Write a sequence for this structure.
């Protein structure tokens, strides 16, 4: 069975508390969550603005959440134990554990048309580049710049404590770009929101707005807005 992939640029990021000395060569990080880095992609492990290591992914073991990097350049020195690891790649992986569906049965019909979906030549459980070329659905990369300038640099986008309006968090069950633990960590920090709601959408990925169950997302948002307008 072929896996169907959207032609999207993905920014993959994870945290690690592994204690490592800054230097070149092989470095092993144990990740805080199962984030599937791709062998060969270039990533940077950042401790702070003055201490980082850049290299390529040698291997990743999802069972132990162990990421091995071949570090080729560094800034700073010393031994550090709190890392944010991230890098950008074209889609070479399934965005969800259940992503072995035919594209025409999973995506909104206009998106699933030939030429808008890239097909992998590899069977389920493997990785590889797309084999089809031509028009493709693409996503803007401003969010990647934001991630590089804030998240990877260890600077927060915002302070959730300062949010003072009703807040809805909607999350996809199969979202690997922002795994469930991220939304679940953010939710209790909304201490000054007068009302707050967390909605988990089953079988939804980071691109749920383009998927067949996108109406569940629309209903969750519409319901929240209507309830707040009546209060």
């Amino acid at each position: 069975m072929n896996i169907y992939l959207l032609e999207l640029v993905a920014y993959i990021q994870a945290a690690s508390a592994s204690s490592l000395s800054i230097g070149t060569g092989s470095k092993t990080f144990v990740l805080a969550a199962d984030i599937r880095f791709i062998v060969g992609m270039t990533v940077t492990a950042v401790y702070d603005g003055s201490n980082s290591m850049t290299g390529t992914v040698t291997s990743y073991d999802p069972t132990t959440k162990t990421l091995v990097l071949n570090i080729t350049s560094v800034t700073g020195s010393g031994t550090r134990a709190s890392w944010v690891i991230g890098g950008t790649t074209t889609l070479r992986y399934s965005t969800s554990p259940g992503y072995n569906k035919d594209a025409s049965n999973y995506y909104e019909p206009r998106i699933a048309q030939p030429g808008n979906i890239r097909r992998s030549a590899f069977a389920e459980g493997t990785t590889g580049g797309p084999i089809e070329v031509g028009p493709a659905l693409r996503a803007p990369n401003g969010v990647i710049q934001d991630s590089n300038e804030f998240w990877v640099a260890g600077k927060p986008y915002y302070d959730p404590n300062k949010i003072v309006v009703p807040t809805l968090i909607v999350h996809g069950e199969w979202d690997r770009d922002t795994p469930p633990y991220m939304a679940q960590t953010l939710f209790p920090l909304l201490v000054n929101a007068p009302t707050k709601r967390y909605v988990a959408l089953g079988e939804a990925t980071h691109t749920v707005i383009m998927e067949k169950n996108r109406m569940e997302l629309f209903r969750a948002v519409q319901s929240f807005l209507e309830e707040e307008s009546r209060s």
